[in-house]
Write a structure and sequence with these properties.
Number of helices: 6
Number of domains: 3
Number of strands: 19
Structural class: alpha+beta
Oligomer: single chain
Radius of gyration: 25 Å
Largest sheet: 6 strands, antiparallel
Amino acid sequence: MIERLIYGLQNGKLVTIDDVQSGLSCGCVCPNCKSKLIAKKGNIREHHFAHINNNDCFWRGESLIHLKSKEIISNSRTIKLPKLIWSYNPEILIFDEVTITIDKVTLERKVNDFIPDIIIESKGRKLLIEIIYSHGVNNIKYRKIRKTDIPAIGINVKDIVNSLFKEKDYFFNSNKFKTELINSAKYKFWIYNPELIKLRKILKSKYAERHVIQTLKSNNVFFDDMIYSEYCPIAKRTWQSGILKGESYAKLYEDCENCKYYLGRDEYEIIGCNSGVVIDKKPAIYCIGHLGSPFDLDIRNVINKHKKKIRQNKS
């Protein structure tokens, strides 16, 4: 993890701790609060800057890395996108890694009620990019992204920086950070892709079973409530005690949402009501696990047919 301040401003120019003399003679100020820094370059601890007076500044370079990432992508003419995977075990691939051209870049412009870090336009299509450092994509942000119905990827820039810092490579002095950010898909992932949602809808309409979600309340302040599917056809977990001992279940976030047989969920169902008023809430997931592993071949067939349609629409 990056815990120490290794950047400073010297005469308005960004420098690393290795670029300056030790002590106050470094002549640097904090990029965030602009207060004076001291360069600590001893023989025991990792070299770093420290504030002389301002103890309230918690600058650790996160904003700088965000800005630098946006700058690099804005000035690039291409970017590599990650694979779109249906499942990893076995791997069922929807699309392989691909490099796209960048025709236009817009930074932090509102789309509906969401402000992405970057919007890329390529051949008339848009792509949203989120620069991930300390905060990932929570459910609220995901819903906002999904509402835009625009493909979105995340880039784990903190992981890139950490991997380079192990080699004492402070990426501003080399092209390694840029190479990982633009030409590699190692630290990128799909947050949302409409094609995956379309495939789930196709499979859901033909094959899915509906399993009700339950919530097991926790009285312990250190544990969240457990949300689980009351039945799991591939028996991810089994109850070890109580009246349900021996029966299968699956945790929603840990098991279902990472499972190749998961096709999404709904929040409630209207039951026996002519007026349209919700009288019985029954959250549920949609699952094709009852079809078992041999169905992987059928999933591939559906994916291949869907990909052919996409190619035909593009041509």
